[in-house]
């Protein structure tokens, strides 16, 4: 097995080229992925990071790299993140060599989980074969103007869509509980600290001038919501991309087309604002969410995989 060592300054241009080639190959196959890559800026980033970058070398040639940033997640647990540009390998034994060195290091640093973003599709297989489990999907759509789907007459009533404000915080909190439940959270067991944290987060969301809170009402009663904001610069994301999140439909109102109706209206509004693309994420355990987004034309571009490393 070829030696694995830490990156040295002389390696940065080579590793940047490996990352560029890896990302360009994905973008060539998937037009919803942007191939913009500032190589010089990436090299500067490599030289600034404090966490180690591992490289796999054979006969003086670097054949792969692996980087992971260890930090606390939302629950305060230490996890290690590897983005789409944080890894490359020519052959799977290169990945084996990189993981053999990196995983023990991250474990010693207190990390419990390695989280990696991979192009969706066949490129996830190498990770799955090494104990990683698909967790969520990042999906994209090129927005086109379309009429909202027709709601059956017995369900349509007086349907209106409006922009919510901080005055709608209680409504947002109720929908947030529905989203937690869809992720398998027993909302009855949420602590006061967790509820307070959720309230603070939603308050900040509703106060953010770049965030739009859409509420679908039936006869004046909120029955669905969607939150949007412009995506910052992310690897693989096109300029002019809006992010849709926190879509939720009230209990007793599901499977009637309200979610699709709201999302279609939101996408039309985004197009009118000048956005050309939209992105969403869903957990693979959220089958209703997966069905909704897929039916709206969203296509997976990246998959998030996870592996426990503290056992």
Q: What is the structure about, briefly put?
A:
This protein is an alpha+beta fold and 311 residues long.
Draw up the topology in text.
Blueprint: E1 4-6, H1 12-29, H2 39-48, E2 53-58, E3 61-67, E4 69-72, E5 78-82, E6 87-89, H3 92-108, E7 113-119, H4 125-128, E8 133-142, H5 153-156, E9 159-163, H6 169-182, H7 192-207, E10 212-218, E11 221-230, E12 241-249, H8 258-272, E13 277-283, H9 287-295, E14 299-308
Parallel strand pairs: 5-7, 12-13
Antiparallel strand pairs: 1-2, 2-3, 3-6, 4-5, 7-14, 8-13, 8-14, 9-10, 10-11, 11-12
Helix pairs in contact: 1-2, 6-7
Provide a descriptive summary of the structure in words.
The structure is a single chain. The protein has 311 residues and is of the alpha+beta class. It folds into 2 domains: 4-138, Aminopeptidase (3-Layer(aba) Sandwich); 144-275, Gcn5-related N-acetyltransferase (GNAT) (Aminopeptidase), CATH 3.40.630.30. Helices cover 34% and strands 30% of the residues. It contains 9 helices and 14 strands. The strands form 2 sheets. Strands 4-5-7-14-8-13-12-11-10-9 form a 10-stranded mixed sheet, sandwiched between helices. Strands 1-2-3-6 form a 4-stranded antiparallel sheet, with helices on both faces. Strand 12 (241-249), helix 8 (258-272) and strand 13 form a beta-alpha-beta unit. It is elongated and about 70 Å long. The two termini are 25 Å apart.
